[in-house]
Amino acid sequence: MESTISKSDAQRKVDQIQAFQQELDELQKNQILNLSQDQLHKIQTYHQKITAKLTNDFDVDTSQGTKNLTLGMQITSFLGAIALAASVFFLFYQYWGYFNTQVQVAILVSAPLTTLFATFAIREKESTGHFSKLMALISFACFVLNLSMLGQIFNITPSDNALAVWCAYALVLAYALDIRLLLAVAIACFYAFIAARVGEWCGSYWLSMGEHPETFILPALILFIIPSLFSHHRYHNFESIYRVLALCGLFLAILIMSHWGRSSFLPWDSDVIEGFYQVLGFVLTAGFIALGIKKIWPAVVNTANVFFVLFLYTKFYDWWWDWLPKYLFFFLIGISAVLFLLIFNRLRNQLRQRVFKEDIV
Amino acid sequence: MKKRLFLAALSLILLSNAVVLGKVAFNRAAVLNELVLTEREMQSRYSSVKENSSTQLQLRWHTPMQPSTNYYYGYQNILPINDNQREMLGFKPLNCQQGSYRYNDNETTAWVLMELDGQAYLNDLSLLESRIKEAQAENKNRQETKSLEEQLKRLREYDSRLYAIAVSAEPGQLLPAIKNKEKQFLLKAIISDSKYCNNEIFIKQLSMGDLYLPKSLITNTTGLPRNYFVHIAIGNLGEAWIENITPR
Question: Contact at 8 Å (CB) between A198 and A215?
Fold first, then answer.
């Protein structure tokens, strides 16, 4: 039977137990609280059982040292996966010209299949998940190579359907193995596919999707509401990935449109369009900051903050760069940064109070 | 749950490959058209990945020179149209000063009539010859005359003789113009409206671009011969492939 808690919950529980033990020691040392030996023994035994079970089921870190090592392993795993995926690409490019068509097709089809089987086989055997995640990334790279190279070998007209298939594959692997990087890749493919399709419906060639940033707005909004519609409690930080990438897509599109009104689908003058998107950028960033504070979504608050500052600084540049002396321009930027620090500090206190109230309740 | 996701991933790989290979099989089940091009029209493509061991041939083509334009080096992509064609292609009428720059990104798919070594090629040769004569008669500087002579030499000996000569929204409208099936054929293309407020379109991309050359077709141990014929087949789905390559 699959567990109903995620690795994040398990790690939080272990950290909570350690914090409790440390605080208990402090209270006893300062003679604020005195528990009997029997009570202490019962608490310790109970906590040891929980910690052992969580370590066994989720491979959580029980000290700062192991946490640092885990972080190192994650970074190494990520870099290793990128390097191995690149190696697969270049290996194929190096030798594919020497094989006949049948051998090429056989290699291309079997590569993602073999790596898929290997991924799940490794997952059954290991507890950390690092090796299976690495293999999953390689499997995804093999699948991308599979379809793109078949297209080259058989001179197939490029189609945006490949993006949908790659998105689906990355998504399946992400959810099967709790891999945030593959979720991010799936979201990137999703953006590209929806933008290409909307662009096609509006009369553009699908490979020109980047010429109409507005086509990224709809997929961004869809991505933002997905974690609210479907619970991702069992997955480590998937909700934040969805929301942050959704906001990045949305605000980048608005930022570009606020300076490039000509590429809009709206039937207005380009100056009016740019003005509209500039106002929309400020309104939406402020709105998402407020929403993030209300819902206690720190990632949303931070992302919206960054883009609010970006929108503001691009406006400062538009207004003042040409006619203010440079020292004064940068001085004003610096002063505004100090002002933002004060505002962010206030927002942080508000967020902290909300979290505190939620904990009490 | 993990087992279901594993089966979903497996199905995705198998299904997508089945669809792609099925499409290829259907396309190659029948040959709707056959072309014979030379190394002038299908040139070996340089790969940015230096370890790339495969060979791809790139289709080189252009549109007829215009009497008013000076530019020529084999890669012109502009085709004049009339108001009727503009409307049928779905582009807006021209409401601007002729020749002035205007931003537009209107694109659409259309059909283009291609002609190999035909009247368009002969017209371009004549146009260059008459320009050279004019330059010599007007005693233009030696540099300009030399440049025109170089252009003529390139067109006679090296550059592609494949021209895009007509465009239409529907292939049926271009079929009556095909007099010689071995030298004229239709291709799908992505076209865009002109950025210079002229009654012309810009051919962005043809459906037949780079073609993969299977190693088995290169019988010469030193690689592609210097001069060669490329035998191309176009199948049920309008997708092309190289059937054979022979030295000439």
Answer: yes
pLDDT at B74: 47
pLDDT digits (tens, 9 = 90+) for A70-93: 788 878 888 888 888 888 888 888
Is the ipTM beyond the 0.85 threshold?
A: no
Question: Between chains, do A203 and B216 touch, taking CB under 8 Å as contact?
Answer: no
Spatial CA neighbour of A190 closest among A171, A167, A220: A167
Question: Could you tell me the CA-to-CA distances from B95 to A76, A98, B78, B89 in Å, in that order?
Answer: 60, 56, 20, 17
Q: Which residues of A touch B240 (CB under 8 A)?
A: 155
Which of residues 141 through 170 in chain B touch A, CB cutoff 8 A? none
Distance CA A128, CA B135 (A): 78
Q: How many angstroms separate the Cα of B74 from the Cα of each of A56, A248, B65, B78, B227?
A: 69, 43, 9, 12, 19
Enumerate the β-bridge partners of residue B244.
Answer: B231
Tell me how far apart the alpha carbons of residues A358 and A102 are, in angstroms, rounded to a whole number.
Answer: 62
* Cα within 13 Å of Cα(B205), Cβ side: 14
Distance between CA atoms of residues A16 and A10, nearest Å: 10
Residue B166 CB contacts under 8 Å (≥ 6 apart), including other chains: B79, B112, B113, B174, B177
Length of chain B: 248
Model's pTM, two decimal places? 0.83
Tokens at B163, concatenated: 């021209």
Q: Which comes out higher in pLDDT, residue B147 or B113? A: B113
Which residues in chain B are closer than 8 Å to A262, comparing Cβ atoms? 103
Q: CA of B48, closest CA in chain A: separation in Å?
A: 11
Contact B195, B102 (CB under 8 A): yes
User: How distant is the Cα of A153 from the closest Cα of chain B, in angstroms?
Assistant: 6
Q: Do A156 and B13 touch (CB under 8 A)?
A: no
Helix (H) or strand (E) holding B75: none
The more confident residue out of A218 and B66 is A218
B223 to chain A, any CB pair closer than 8 A? The answer is no
What confidence tens digit (pLDDT) does each residue in B58-112 have? Answer: 999 989 987 666 555 545 788 988 888 888 888 888 877 777 777 666 788 899 9
Sheet of B42-44: strands edge to edge? B42-44, B55-59, B210-213
For residue A148, the number of C-alpha atoms closer than 13 Å in the C-beta half-sphere is 11
| A196 pLDDT higher than 90 | no
| Cα A313–Cα A317–Cα A318 angle in degrees, nearest 5 | 120
Q: What is the C-alpha to C-alpha distance for residues A203 and A197, in angstroms, rounded to an integer?
A: 10
Please state, in angstroms and rounded to a whole number, the distance separating the CA atoms of residues B86 and B169.
10
